[in-house]
Amino acid sequence: xxxxxxxxxxxVAAVFLTLQSVILTLAPAVKMRSLDADLRFxxxxxxxxxxxxxxxxHRAIVKYLPDADPFxxxxxxxxxxxxxxxxxxxxxxxxxxxxxxWLVVSLLVFLLGLRLSSQLxxxxxxxxxxxxxxxxxxxxxxxxGTNPISIGPKLWFGCCGLYFQPSEPLxxxxxxxxxxxxxxRIALGGRMLTxxxxxxxxxxxxxxxxxxxxxxxTALIFMALYTIIIYLATGRRxxxxxxxxxxxxxxxxxxxxxxxxxxxxxxxxxxxDDPVSGSYQIIQALLAIANGGIEGRGxxxxxxxxxxxxxxxxxxxxxxxxxxxxxxxGLLALFxxxxxxxxxxxxxxxxxxxxLFAAGITxxxxxxxxxxxxxxxxxxxxxxxxxxxxxYGGSSLLVxxxxxxxxxxxxxxxxxxPAPLQNHQPYILVSGVLSLGLFVAALxxxxxxxxxxxxxxxxxxxxxxxxxxxxVRRGALLDRSDTIIxxxxxxxxxxxxxxxxxxxxxxxxxxxxxxxxxxxxASLDEYLRGIKGTPATTLWWNHLLYxxxxxxxxxxxxxxxxxxxxxxxxxxxxxxxxxxxxAQTGEILVMSSHPxxxxxxxxxxxxxxxSDPNQPLINRATQGLYPTGSVVDPFAAALFGEQSITSKELxxxxxxxxxxxxxxxxxxxxxxxxxxxLEHFHVSPLQVALAxxxxxxxxxxxxxxxxxxxxxPVEGWVVLPVLGTPTxxxxxxxxxxxxxxxxxxxxxxxxxxxKASEGDTSVTWFLAGTPGNWQGTPFVVVVLIxxxxxxxxxxxxxxxxxxxxxx
Amino acid sequence: xxxxxVLVLRFALSIALYVFLGWALLTLWRELDQQGKALAVxxxxxxxxxxxxxxxxxxxxSFSQTEIIIGRHASCDVSLMDETLSAQHARITxxxxxxxxxxxxxxxGTSLNENTLTTPTVVISDxxxxxxxxxxVIRIDTEESIST
Lengths: 807, 148
What we know:
The complex is a heterodimer. By secondary structure, chain A is an alpha+beta fold. Helix content of chain A is 54%, strand content 10%. Chain A has 29 helices and 19 strands. In chain A, β14 and β15 form a beta hairpin. Chain A is elongated. Chain B has one helix spanning 2-41; strands at 47-51, 59-63, 67-71, 78-79, 90-95, 98-103, 110-112, 115-116, 121-123, 128-131, 134-140. By secondary structure, chain B is of the alpha+beta class. Chain B starts with a helix and ends in an 8-residue tail after the last strand. Chain B is built from 1 helix and 11 strands; from the N terminus they run αβββββββββββ. Chains A and B meet through α1, α3, α13 and α22 of A and α1 of B.
């Protein structure tokens, strides 16, 4: 019967891993959206090795341990195969093959160990010797230890590219030692304190050594294992309370004395405060879990490699991203299965030593799983322990399989009756608490992946958005006659943004993996990414298939590239801004900011741009604030009939002309700067352009707009809403009269040259617009030069308005 | 197209995982079910005790349970008002496919076939034991054997 159960479970496990391997092979084709991709095959070696050894072990179990528990080995084999494929997928060149090698070693040791006698006498007899030598080995790492990645605590012995961590077998030997010691002593009888004391001293020796080595996770596991075994052996709840008090004490002391502990606890309690350094790992792990959602992105289709050390500490988060909540709940259920069966084997064990040993081994698996899974999902502070059978780590894998081997031997009681048991409650309690902990871990994973997930994924530090840009075409920015300003070029997997008209960069901005987004690329991101404007079902289906958004949508701007080009040409070499708009609709035809930069070369120039004293990243048209000076004169004339006005009238003017609020537009706009002296009022060129538009538009300030329409897949071009509302600044006659009075001799448009200076810097303003009686489309243009240069300002403004007014 | 195929495979993957778990649970439940049934049909040989009370004739008591406690206390299965008996004097239990007699730290002790009882001891039919001054003869019905 056992043989059949075990063989069937192993077959299902093999099907599971084969399916996973097939998906891993096909994953690049899905990412590239064509079969013409670099399909991955190397992991099939890992699967083959797994299958072969598991088959041999199954045969050996049937032969040597026919009555052993039939659930434990299949569950562990499934976990380690799953872990191996997950690790191989993360790094097929280095840690994947290493883990495969360690799995071969572990399974061979397991295979050979099946021939041992099930009495496990040697462990019981040589408990002191074994434990002392393991402790000595750990002690030796203080002098001869190394670290495979050259930083961090030196807990390994290394030779010839292979590393072994002696504190891993020490865990198992601690359990064996305690079980043997307590089984011997309790049989002799005597006071409880005298029974516990020697074990207490030896265990604490080990804990102190580990604390000294900064192997804090292992120290914590030691204390937990010690507590559990004492509790199981004596049935005293006090043991647990004392131990919890100890761990809390160590935790508080560690928080103030040991930097690592403090950092870990801080990043556990307040991860969002420091997302770039201290909490980077945990936040990236949570993002991976969130990206996994319920169904997971599919093996090979997520981006778990983003999490640092995903293979060892964060394998759970890596698995969560690719198999989703379905996968992680299953994974935790496998651990619960092992815990349940392990404790069952313990209760049925023929003597106290084997009972305590089996319960201890099972607790060791349970505690490690709980600690590291809890650390991955921010349920507990992060402890750098491994997830048994799953994580990358040779020593851990080998020791887990040796522990499993002992468990198999203990469960293989032929006709022996279970040893008498006075109190079964501690066993039920410990296994129940461990299982409950894993259940809570599953619920918490669900919380991150389902409840908090969608919200988390929109975070700016989610690198998946930038990876998505390599695989999904981002929409283009077009001018008013559909000429391309910015678009996406390249093939899938290497898509990049191409800026055809780089001079517009301060306005249109950029979308860059390192420097993020700016300008219209940032404000129109949802359309350009296709999140808005695409039917929800299409988005859902794309997310399900590829874990990505659907193709981005093109956005048409109000910019007229011909006029824009004229403005930029004339502004070349000068600092300043030009805004030209349709005075009636508020559509912006020209928005020029100089100096500009070329976003096509952002990789090379990005660093120097932020520190450039000329501030080319600033969009001077909306973010630049300049002293008003005499530029308010035309508005004063329109509002009050004369150019010299009182300061009270000046503040009325500021309010009426809309200088007090930043314009509402799809671009970052600066608040106007009001100092005590009203003469030193600062406004942006866009604000002046809007005010000027009132003169050409019969007294109404239009609502500005720069993005006019988006090309949706279902309805075609859809007009984008204008953000602001038009406001009346003055009576129609006042505006029309003022605009006519500012027409210069020989012109058919009104214009005004203004100056403002502050300290030793002075700026030149030039305003022009169609008069109130103009029958065609009304235009206004505002030019600002950051120098005293009336000629240039006038030339730019005049040429643009003449060009726009001529049919 | 390929993505749809992979999507189907991904769902098959999840299903395989839960087939594993579901199958394990089903097997566990079946095992539990069988164990329960096995325990239910498992029969023990019936035991009866013949003893002579202080007055009156010999009496024979038959038991269907697996644990019989002899003593003076009213809660005992064999409760006798004899001064030489302790409140809970001795226990007869069935385990390891045998009936066992065990003294429960009684004041006057228990003896089996004239030997004082110190550890739990297997008893067979026609064994005689004494609790204090009360003597019992055991009769074990061998016809009903164990059937598992």
